[in-house]
Amino acid sequence: MNRLRLVALACAALLTGAAALAHAAPAPEVVTLRNGMRVLLAPDSAATAVDVAVWYPAGTRWEPADRAGLSHLVSRLMFRGTKRVPDGSLRRQLLEEGGVVNSTNTPDGTCYWETLPAEALPLALRLEADRMANLSPTEAAFEQSRSDARTDRRLRAEPSPMARGLARLLATAFPDDAYGRSPYGEDASLRRLTVRETEAWRRAHYAAGGALLTVVGRFEPKGTMAYIRSLFESLPRGTPPAAPRPPAPQDAERRSWTRGQTPVRLAFAGWRGPGANDPDTPALQVMAQVLNSAHSRLATALTTEWHAAALTQAGLQTYRDASLLWVVAAVPAGADSSTAERVMLDEVDRLVREPLPAELVARVRSQLGVDALFGAQPVRARAASLGESVFEDGHLDGARNRAAAYERVTPADIQRVAKRWLVESGRSVAWYVPTGEGR
Predict the structure, then answer these.
(1) Positive or negative, the Cα torsion across 328, 329, 330, 331?
(2) Of 104, 145, 222, 311, which has the fewest beta carbons less than 10 angstroms from its beta carbon?
(3) What structural domains does the chain harbor?
(4) pLDDT score, position 400
(5) pLDDT digits over 246-282, tens only?
(6) How distant is the alpha carbon of residue 63 from its chain centre?
(7) pLDDT > 60? residue 21
(8) From the CB of residue 249, how many other CB atoms can be counted at a distance below 10 Å?
(9) pLDDT of residue 4
(10) Helix residue spans in 293-336 (DSSP H)
(11) CA–CA distance, 260 with 26 (Å, rounded to integer)
(12) What is the pTM assigned to this prediction?
């Protein structure tokens, strides 16, 4: 039995298993409280834990450009004390119950989550309601959080040469938009922030009316919903902030050249695409997966035929209102940079000129479908998938929708989408080279 057949059977088995699980467990439900807060309940009696998460419209796209880093600073403050919970106690209480606690920041929003034993669910809900309503950072807590945010920026932002180069490509492709900015902000902006303006921004973006609470895993739905109403429904609605405008369109190729800490020259190219929920995005994801293969035409041409690169990678960076299909070639000493760039761009352009083999597309789309469904099985992963679907797209069951969308992608779809989006006017090229090296 060939590999394509095995992948197809695995995907079919997983779809059948997911359907059986969905049949055994109640379907996820979204309820809107009187104050506008949405609540997503996805009970599963077979789960061994429960995941609680709260999503807020509070990513980098929501912060003023001259206050870059504000959203990350607030995410630090959200783990500090409230009027009822001493500083440092929130995380400690959840950890003592055997929980895993963290936050997730994207340009489009911020999510605070904890995965913990089912019996600790009331505690998690109480703590989330408390910090939504009663966060009260002292001047000392603010200064410590600012110091931590500045340290994050210095130590955690773009830790590897590949990540730093990709960050430069995003900044080149989205020069006037938060999609091109670091989530950790700018040190000068962080230094300018005050307690007063930070708290004003937090209250506007962290009110109940714009929030989404998700409870996924092992819990009893009726009693849990009643308890949620008792904790959250009386909290102030606030005025949910207006959605950020989509990035301005790109009408000409953009280029950048940056020197930094990298052992080899890295040539990046990226093509602007649509948002995560656009019908063309699954085809772009298949393209990215094809280009990322170690045996792709891109890798073969650059590393074997032209000896212009030591390795290649590709991916699709997706956001709510835009995406970026990117490729990178690591160009070793002695290889010709102009040849590496020319071959890299030409191999991507072949997606426009020539259809991909049907068997290759079928294999890649099946693998993407399997990954989407397997990735949504653990409680935390399922909670993230459901929460992201409702928070960003306004609908449930994102993993199954993505898997179904991948299965519909054909070679003709890929060529059509490539002709639409892989154009020179939407392209950006960013070179990231060792310090001291000339052009």
Answers:
(1) negative
(2) 222
(3) 20-232 (3.30.830.10), 254-434 (3.30.830.10)
(4) 67
(5) 999 999 999 999 999 899 999 999 999 999 889 999 9
(6) 17
(7) no
(8) 9
(9) 42
(10) 297-299
(11) 53
(12) 0.88
